[in-house]
Amino acid sequence: MQNGLSCECLDNGTKKCETEYEKCVRISGKGSPTFINQKGENCSCLQNGQTQCTANKSPKDKCLSDAGVKTNPFMQNGLSCECLDNGTKKCETEYEKCVRTSGKGSPTFTNNIGENCYCLQNGQTQCTANKSSKDKCLSDAGVKTNPFTQNGLSCECLDDGTKRCETGYEKCIRVSGRGSKTFTNSEGQFCFCLHSGETECRFNYDKNSPPSVISCLVENGENSLPFTRDGVLCDCNDYGIKSCMTPYETCVRVKGENNPRFKNDKGVDCRCLQSGEVECFDSLSPKEVCLKYAGAKSNPFEIKGVKCECLDTGLQKCETLYDICIRVDGQGLARFTNSRGKICDCLQNGQLNCISQVITSKDKCLSESGANANPFEQNGLRCECQNNGIKKCETEYEKCVRVDGKGNYKFKNTGNSNCECLKSGEIKCTLGEKTILAYCLEDAMATSNPFIFNGLKCTCSISGNKSCV
Question: What's the DSSP call for residue 33?
């Protein structure tokens, strides 16, 4: 070593020493003119023996640098591009650009003159004149106007483009019944339309009965009213609807002769149970029978919040609404002071009449709103009663500004997206060039709402939330 350089003497007696560059290659580069230092930087040996190092870029950063941009996504030759982690550059196709710019995320769209358009693979658009859904339905059916006949049935095209045809039953009513499901044929028979579209005619019914009642009897295979079905009495009303009593109602009508409580042929007190069975009390006093009917064991007892008692005569005596007011609201007093300091009286109808020395319009508004002071919340909105007694509540938009925007109608959410309160109270957020809605659709590999995701029907909201049912 001489002067820090590796030297050797040759056979001819001359001394040969390495250069500063060769020393750098030997020591710093471990035999290579280029190397990576301990900081992970890319370094190379210079001729003067010094080293030159630069920060080591990731493949993605190098791709962005080569493209002359700093972040994804970026525009190049009119196309939206992005650099991937492996350093490759991915740009949208002309078709994808058309979907993004012209279709606003959808390959099919309506242009500003109302034409139906779609994106071609070369990025161009093809548009045709827009025919209404109803006109398209008529055209597909080979007709020009409503109504029209198809397969012997009367049909029409609706405004939404769907075709509606009458059923065989409806055709029977229109043609045979001339608007009625029951009719008399040319032979004087009573007839009615079946749901299959066929007609059935019979003779053996009271001609004074309304056609709808006769139709109800026919459908239930009966000839007269009332009739029994599964042990209960049934009837047909004037609209042709079958109405059957419950087992309890049948017991009241048949066993009790229209009374739920009655004496049997032995003079024993009995009652109808909900099951339709009869329960009788052989050796009970009138008071005990009364308690039994009420489902109570002793006096007093409550029925739907009303306090009652059974007298020795067997009669049931219950407190009035006035009595309930005194017991519940007045705690035993007919006149009392409530929690707001107002003097209240129990009225005979059970209502309260409360007055105070000074009742302002504002106090009346607060009382009617069930609030004690301003501000208060009602239906999720902040409200207040003004001095003139008028209640003023914020709008959904004002609530959005107050709650979500913290006082601003434009704000950033927790995801650092730019958001804005709409007049409807909804929140619209955007992230870069795309809306949150567009990112939601993109994540679901959909182009528009609604879409199918994992077998479920889903939609993306303007705030970027995906909901599926």
Answer: S
Q: Which helix (H) or strand (E) holds 61?
A: helix 59-67
142 residue type, one letter: G
Question: Any long-range contacts for 105-114 (C-beta under 8 Å, 24+ apart)?
Answer: 105/438, 105/441, 105/447, 105/448, 106/447, 106/448, 107/447
Under a CB-based contact definition with an 8 Å cutoff, are residues 243 and 234 in contact? yes
Residue 148 confidence (pLDDT)? 93
Q: Nearest CA to 103 among 116, 118, 93?
A: 118
Report CA-CA distances (Å) from 135 to 143, 144, 151, 161.
9, 8, 20, 8
Q: What angle do CA 94, 95, 98 make, to 5 degrees?
A: 85
DSSP 258-299: S-SEEE-TTS-EEEE-TTS-EEEESS--HHHHHHHHHT-SSS
DSSP H/E element including 323: helix 321-324
18 vs 371 pLDDT, higher one: 18
The answer to whether the CB of 390 falls within 8 A of the CB of 402 is: no
Lowest mean pLDDT among 25-34, 159-168, 353-362: 353-362
Which backbone phi and psi does 78 adopt, to 5 degrees?
A: 80, 5
Q: Comparing 158 with 343, which gets the higher pLDDT?
A: 158
| Residue burial 46-70, b: 16+ Cβ < 10 Å; e: rest | eeebeeeeeeeeeebeebbeeeebe
Structure tokens at 426: 């909804």
Count CA atoms within 13 Å of residue 214 on its CB side: 21
Taking the chain, what is the end-to-end CA distance rounded to the nearest angstrom? 82
Mean pLDDT, rounded, for 445-468: 84
Q: What is the dihedral of CA 218, 219, 221, 227, to 10 degrees?
A: -90
How far apart CA 147 and CA 93 sit, in angstroms, is 48
Question: Is-contact 466 460, C-beta < 8 A?
Answer: yes
Residues 6+ apart with CB under 8 A from 124: 98
Neighbours of 252 (CB within 10 A): 20
Supply 287's token pair.
Answer: 């008071």
CB atoms within 10 A of CB 76: 13
Residue 436 dihedral angles phi and psi, to the nearest 5°: -60, -35
CB 432 within 8 A of CB 438: no
From CA 245, how far away is CA 230, in angstroms rounded?
Answer: 11
Residue 168 has pLDDT above 80, yes or no: yes
- State pLDDT tens for residues 270-327: 888 888 888 888 777 888 888 888 888 899 998 888 899 999 888 889 999 999 998 8
Tokens coding 290: 């009364």
CA atoms of 423 and 374, how far apart (whole Å): 25
Question: What is the residue type of 317?
Answer: K
Strand partners, 307: 302
